[in-house]
Amino acid sequence: MVLNCKHVWDHISEYLDGTLDPEMLDQVKKHLEHCEICSAVLDSTRNILILTADDRTFSLPVGFSERLHDRLEQALRNPPD
Ligand SMILES: [Zn+2]
């Protein structure tokens, strides 16, 4: 099975939590090696998680992941070039 970007986004929080199956983890890592979009998503998601870890009272805004996915879909439709 070959992962596409949407699969990676669906699993990105598990990837960062370290709860992904070893097999899926391998696929996600391989995808990230050659996909700039997903690498950027991973970086920004990780930054958000670091911020939230620093402040336990902070919670993600409602709809955050939906907005993230919308932005990603736009990025895929109109690749920056
Ligand atoms: Zn990707």
Task: Lay out the secondary structure.
Layout (H helix, E strand, L loop, with lengths): L4 H13 L4 H13 L1 H19 L9 H14 L4
Bound molecules: zinc ion.
Your description of this structure?
The protein has one domain. The protein is globular. Helices cover 73% and strands 0% of the residues. The chain is mainly α and 81 residues long. The protein contains four helices and no strands. The site of zinc ion (ZN) has 6 residues, from helix 1 and helix 3. The site of zinc ion has 6 residues, from helix 1 and helix 3.
Write a concise synopsis of the structure shown.
By secondary structure, the chain is mainly α.
Keywords:
binds zinc ion; mainly alpha
**Straight-line N-to-C gap:** 29 Å
Q: What is the makeup of the main sheet? A: none
SSE-based structural type = mainly alpha
Mean pLDDT: 81
Beta-strand proportion: under 5%
| Count of individual helical segments | 4
The poorly predicted ranges are: none
